[in-house]
Write a structure and sequence with these properties.
globular, 34% helix, Rossmann fold, five-stranded mixed barrel, amp nucleosidase, domain 1, single chain, four-stranded antiparallel sheet
Length: 392
C-alpha cells in the first residue's frame, strides 16, 4: 500500500467507488499510525472564500474510524480534495515532550471538530479512557450516557445483555451496546463529583461522539416538586469550579435544543411530572452545611435542582462541540425537610431507575432516525468558525 492518497469526487464514477476511496483513506491512516507515524489529513475546499484549506494530524484513527469515514465522505461529496500522508514520527507515551503538544493553553477552541485535538492529546486521552473505564476505546459508541449509580448499569445490562463490560475493576466502568458504524450506546458510571465528570468528558471528547447525556439524580429546590419528579436542564449554574480557568463562568452554557425537545416528548409520553430550568452544580456534597451562602446563589439563579456533575459535563460538551443534555430525577428535597436518607433513597432508586434510562435511550433512538449524520451543532460553533460544507 502506498503511503499517500489523494482523491476527489471526480475520481469516483459512483457512490460505491467514492466509499471505496474513503475506506482506502482510512485504511492508510491506520497503517501509517501502526507503522509509527501520525497520519495527516489535508482538505482543500474550493468553495470556501476565506478558509479553503483545513488540515490536522490524527492518532489511533481506528478508534473513531466511523467518524472519519462519515466526515471525509461528506467533504468529498461536496467536491473537496482530500490528501492523506504521513506527518511525523509518533511521540512515545513516556516522552517528556508528549504533554507539550497537548497543552490546552495553546489550544484553539475554534478549530474544526475533526482537527480539534493534537495527536498527542488523542493518544493520552484514549490510553486514559482505557485505564479509567476498563474497556477498549474502539468499543465506545456514538451516544454516550453518563451516570453515577450502579442501578443504571443494572438496567443497561438488562436492556442490552450482550453489551461489552469492563475487563477488570476500574474507577469509571463503561458498558457498550455495540451496533454497526458505532451507532449504539455507551454507558459510563463516572462516580460522584465534578472532577470525575471533567476527567471522563475530557477523554471521551477525542472520540467525537454524536451526543453526551447526563442521566443522574438531583436535589429538588422548589416546593412544588416531589421525590421522583424529573428535571430537564435548560441551563446551568456553574459552582463546580473545575473548568473556570479554561472557560469563563460568564459564558452561557445551554443544552442541545433538539435533544431537549425529544426528551420532553418522552416525559410527556410517559405522563411524568417534570420541570424545565437551571441546574445548580456544586463541588461541595455537604453544601447544606453552608446553607445560607448556597441558598442565596440558588435564589438568584432561580435554579430548580442541585447536583454535582451536570454543569461540568455540559461545559465540556460546549468546549468540545458535542451536543449534550441533562435529565435528572429528584431524589431528595434538602430545603424542604426531605434530605437524602438511606431508606427512602433506596425505595426511590428502585422505583425510578428503569424508566429514567429507557426514556433517554428512546429519545436518542428517535434522533438517530431523524439525524443519522449526527445532531446539528451550529449552536455551539464559534462565529468565526467556517462550516465544513459552508461558503465562508
Amino acid at each position: 500500500m502506498e503511503k499517500r492518497i489523494e482523491f476527489t469526487k471526480a475520481d469516483a464514477a459512483n457512490e460505491k467507488e467514492l466509499v471505496e476511496h474513503v475506506n482506502k483513506a482510512c485504511d492508510l491512516m491506520e497503517k501509517i499510525y501502526d507503522e509509527g507515524d501520525y497520519p495527516k489529513i489535508v482538505v482543500k475546499r474550493e468553495w470556501s472564500k476565506h478558509n479553503p484549506i483545513l488540515s490536522g494530524e490524527m492518532a489511533y484513527p481506528q478508534a473513531y474510524r466511523w467518524y472519519l469515514t462519515r466526515e471525509l465522505k461528506k467533504l468529498a461529496e461536496k467536491g473537496a480534495e482530500i490528501k492523506i500522508f504521513p506527518s511525523r514520527p509518533r511521540v512515545a507515551m513516556n516522552d517528556p515532550m508528549l504533554f507539550d503538544n497537548a497543552d490546552e493553553d495553546e489550544w484553539d477552541i475554534t478549530q474544526k471538530k475533526m482537527f480539534l485535538f493534537s495527536p498527542e492529546r488523542i493518544d493520552i486521552s484514549l490510553d486514559r479512557l482505557s485505564h479509567y473505564t476498563g474497556t477498549d476505546p474502539k468499543d465506545f459508541q456514538r451516544y454516550i450516557l453518563f451516570t453515577n449509580y450502579d442501578m443504571h448499569v443494572e438496567v443497561f445490562k438488562q436492556l442490552f445483555p450482550d453489551c461489552i463490560e469492563p475487563s477488570r475493576s476500574v474507577q469509571m466502568p463503561a458498558y457498550h451496546h455495540k451496533l454497526s458504524e458505532n451507532k449504539g450506546f455507551s454507558l459510563v458510571n463516572i462516580g460522584v463529583g465534578p472532577s470525575n465528570a471533567k476527567t471522563i468528558s475530557d477523554h471521551v471528547a477525542v472520540l467525537r461522539p454524536d451526543a453526551m447525556v447526563m442521566v443522574g439524580h438531583c436535589g429538588g429546590l422548589r416546593n412544588h416538586q416531589e421525590i421522583g419528579d424529573f428535571v430537564l436542564a435548560t441551563g446551568f449554574m456553574r459552582d463546580d469550579g473545575v473548568l473556570d480557568d479554561v472557560l469563563p463562568v460568564n459564558i452561557p452554557i445551554t443544552p442541545n435544543h433538539l435533544l431537549n425537545v425529544y426528551l420532553m416528548e418522552k416525559l410527556d409520553e410517559h405522563n411524568r411530572s417534570y420541570r424545565l430550568g437551571t441546574v445548580y452544580t456544586t463541588a461541595n456534597r455537604n453544601w447544606e452545611f453552608m446553607k445560607s451562602r448556597t441558598v442565596e446563589q440558588i435564589h438568584v439563579s432561580r435554579s430548580v435542582a442541585i447536583d454535582m456533575e451536570s454543569a461540568t459535563v455540559a461545559t465540556n460538551g460546549y468546549r468540545y462541540r458535542i451536543p449534550f443534555a441533562t435529565l435528572l430525577c429528584v431524589s431528595d428535597k434538602p430545603l424542604h425537610g426531605k434530605p437524602k436518607l438511606s431508606g427512602a433513597a433506596q425505595t426511590f432508586y428502585e422505583n425510578s431507575k428503569e424508566l429514567h434510562l429507557r426514556m433517554v435511550i428512546d429519545a436518542i433512538n428517535f434522533t438517530k432516525n431523524l439525524y443519522p449524520d449526527g445532531l446539528p451543532n451550529a449552536s455551539i460553533r464559534a462565529i468565526n468558525e467556517p462550516l465544513m460544507g459552508g461558503s465562508e
